[in-house]
Amino acid sequence: MLEILGFEFFRNALIAGVLASIACGIIGTYVVVRRMVSVSGGISHAAFGGIGLGYFFGIDPLLGATGFTVATALGMGALQLRARQQMDTIIGAVWAAGMAVGILFVYLTPGFAPDLFSYLFGNILLVPRGDILLMGVLVAIIVAVVALLYRELQAVTFDPDYATVMNLPVERLSLLLLVLIALTVVMLIRVVGIILVIALLTLPAAISRLYTTRIRSMMVLAVVLGIAFTLTGIGLSYLLDVPSGATIILVSTLAYAGALGAERLRQGD
């Protein structure tokens, strides 16, 4: 097993897994606490529209997904806050429209769209160095923003009404949180694919919430769990010669099921 570390593609996969775990541990905590899992699902599936635009205009599809998901997240937030639309309706529209835009522009792109399935289902073993650099930049942005606005984001996450009373810019902070979710979704696309993003974004944080209620502790534990799940999934996918994205998610799901079972037993005692 250790000899595989001599290959650059495997080292890139490990680095990508750690970077993605840091982002999903931090932002996934906000998603779970504020119950924004469905919102994250809408943003992640809308990202396919950016992938399609990237292919059509001849730019890096991941770069196209970044711009498209950020714009989509801001649009969803603005519709909910200002147009007073129900978020579940917005999610349904964005989810379907994003996928439709992606399908249309992939179809209109001349020739064959390379690596399309890796964006849909993930293949962390094929992450190029350029994407790792982009992931590193996105992680740095996410960590810096959360560090600078930790107390404000915590207030908005737990009690938006209290944050309003404290004269915090709740609307802008809510939009910022949506943008951070969008950036995290882009990072996870290369790891597990658009279809499976929601699970890796939420399961480590959901497990950590079973053992602590403090945001900072939840983030740290979720990051550690995310790294463990990702590295275990990568190793198993290599040994068993199965898709890496699906393996990572199954490892995470089994861990979540085990944590829930252990919690039920503990409460029963």
UniProtKB/TrEMBL annotation:
InterPro entries: ABC_BtuC-like, ABC_TroCD. GO terms for biological process: response to zinc ion; transmembrane transport. Belongs to the ABC-3 integral membrane protein family. The chain crosses the membrane at residues 12-33, 53-78, 90-112, 132-150, 162-181, 187-207, 219-239, 245-262. GO terms for cellular component: ATP-binding cassette (ABC) transporter complex. Pfam families: ABC-3. The keyword Cell membrane does not apply. It comes from the Archaea. It is found in: Membrane. This is Membrane protein. Keywords: Membrane, Transmembrane, Transmembrane helix. It comes from Methanoculleus sediminis.
